[in-house]
From TrEMBL, chain A:
Protein name as it appears in the record: DUF4625 domain-containing protein
TrEMBL record, chain B:
Record's signal peptide: 1-23
Protein name: DUF4466 family protein
InterPro entries associated with the record: DUF4466, PARMER_03128_N
Superkingdom field: Bacteria
DUF4466 domain boundaries: 26-337
Source organism of this protein record: Chitinophaga qingshengii
Keywords: Signal
One Pfam family per UniProt: DUF4466
Length: 134, 339
């Protein structure tokens, strides 16, 4: 009799656990919450050099309509070893992810990064245009 | 039925184990000190052991007064340290200090001479006590010799007492770094501005012309509309980064540079910072394949990682001081031979 009671309670706990999982909000492939926000833009941009100090000679010019980030860097910046940092609107994420130093030395072919909104429905591709101080 | 008994038994077991733990606590007795000559040793210096600087130890020894007094203390290094040459300051070599220290009310360490100055005989540093001494801590300074580079060194400390006892303490082995160090080089704009990493020396244009294959970097200061300031540039770099510089003939090596911040090496920065050390491993693991051949806009207390064009040396140059008026700098270098 006791045995049955234990089995029953175990089953009940398992059922509870199952239901709690279903209650959670949906998550995307990165394990991030998918929310209701549809906003999709870059609010700030930073660029660090090989020594993790800023190489920006001016504040960035971010055009959220044309989807461009124009950034002037100091004369003599090591363009092959830069660490970009994007500040995004709440719940948005960036693709591709920044995992280390990025080579920005090909100035004629600017790099592009896609911002994905919180609801994962809106995607906007930003072009990072770098110019060197003269 | 059996289950019930099990629970009783386990409860009893738990209660028993609790009681035994209690009774064990009651058994504590004050430990009896060893009634004999004893010693102990700590290594006081931190960081990589570099040829030409000291490894410092504090060696303590003591004997109960009723048993006798200390007669002598000695240290033997597996590779003998640098010895005093005639005319040298005594502190510029390996020695076992002849004084014990106490700290006075103002926090100053006051020496009390307890023995004859350490003499080196047969590779050992010996201090013979001249005062009746029961307990003392002597400092040992091992000046790392060139022949220890890249090897390991161990130390045997020993003390003898008047009742014939001897104690020994073995310390180490300690690895001696392969790298070299040069402190406080003073490059000046358009003058002594050619740096050789192989020699860790600065040259003028005339001297550079005589040794063009040695010159790895040019130091320059330019006050331009763009950020330039103090810079280290490889002779082979684009002329944009060498404004107004006429290189001596055949000075054309291509050195790679990578700026660093917050690497305030203890040896290079002086006594200001105590926690950061650049060691052999930092040079071994560095990938500079994508680094440029210039470093502009240097800042005080920042640094630059360097790899020579032939890949023979890697170095870390720390900027101790920059002077815009005198257009000069004070830099210190750690250098590692890769191949």
């Amino acid at each position: 009799m006791k045995k049955y009671a234990i089995i029953a309670s175990l089953l009940f706990i398992a059922a509870l656990m199952g239901s709690s999982c279903k209650k959670e909000k949906p998550i995307d492939e990165d394990g991030l919450l998918i929310t209701t926000r549809a906003e999709c833009y870059v609010s700030n941009f930073e660029l660090l050099g090989a020594d993790f100090q800023t190489v920006r000679s001016k504040a960035p010019v971010i055009d959220t309509v044309a989807c461009t980030i124009k950034q002037e860097v100091f004369f003599g910046t090591d363009l092959k070893n830069l660490w970009p940092q994007f500040t995004l609107v709440t719940d948005a994420k960036l693709d591709p992810k920044i995992t280390g130093k990025v080579d920005f030395s090909d100035l004629a072919n600017p790099k592009t990064y896609t911002v994905i909104s919180g609801n994962r429905q809106v995607r906007k591709t930003y072009t990072v245009i770098i110019t060197v101080q003269k | 039925m059996t289950g019930k008994y099990f629970s009783y038994i386990s409860l009893l077991g738990a209660a028993l184990s609790l009681m035994t733990a209690c009774s064990k606590d009651g058994d504590y007795t004050i430990p009896t000190p060893k009634n004999e000559l004893q010693n102990d040793c700590i290594k006081r210096s931190l960081g990589p052991n570099i040829v030409g600087i000291n490894i410092e130890f504090a060696y303590a020894m003591a004997i109960p007064a009723a048993k006798g007094k200390l007669v002598s203390a000695q240290v033997v290094a597996s590779i003998p340290g640098v010895q005093v040459n005639p005319g040298d300051k005594p502190n510029s070599a390996t020695y076992l200090q002849d004084s014990s220290f106490y700290t006075n009310g103002s926090g100053v360490d006051v020496p009390i001479k307890v023995g004859d100055r350490s003499v080196t005989k047969d590779g050992a540093n010996v201090v013979t006590f001249t005062k009746d001494t029961n307990a003392v801590t002597l400092r040992y300074f091992y000046r790392i010799p060139e022949e220890a580079r890249g090897k390991t060194v161990s130390f045997t400390f020993s003390a003898t007492s008047s009742n014939g006892e001897t104690v020994t303490y073995k310390s180490g082995p300690y690895t001696i770094a392969k790298m070299d160090m040069a402190l406080n080089l003073l490059p000046t704009n358009n003058n002594k501005c050619y740096l050789s990493v192989a020699d860790m020396k600065l040259y003028t244009a005339a001297e550079a012309a005589a040794n063009p294959d040695k010159i790895d970097l040019v130091y320059l200061y330019r006050n331009l509309a763009v950020q330039f300031g103090h810079a280290l540039v490889a002779p082979a770099a684009s002329k944009d980064y060498l404004p107004g510089v006429t290189l001596p003939a055949n000075v054309n090596r291509d050195t790679k540079l990578s700026k660093a911040w917050n690497v305030q090496d203890f040896h290079l920065a002086g006594l200001k910072y105590g926690t950061t050390f650049v060691d052999d491993v930092d040079f071994e693991q560095r990938d500079m394949s994508t680094s440029p051949d210039f470093a502009l806009g240097l800042k005080e207390e920042a640094g630059v990682w360097v790899e020579t064009g032939d890949g023979q040396y890697r170095a870390y140059i720390f900027v101790n001081k920059l002077d815009n008026t005198a257009q000069s700098a004070r830099i210190s270098i750690k250098r590692y031979k890769v191949k």
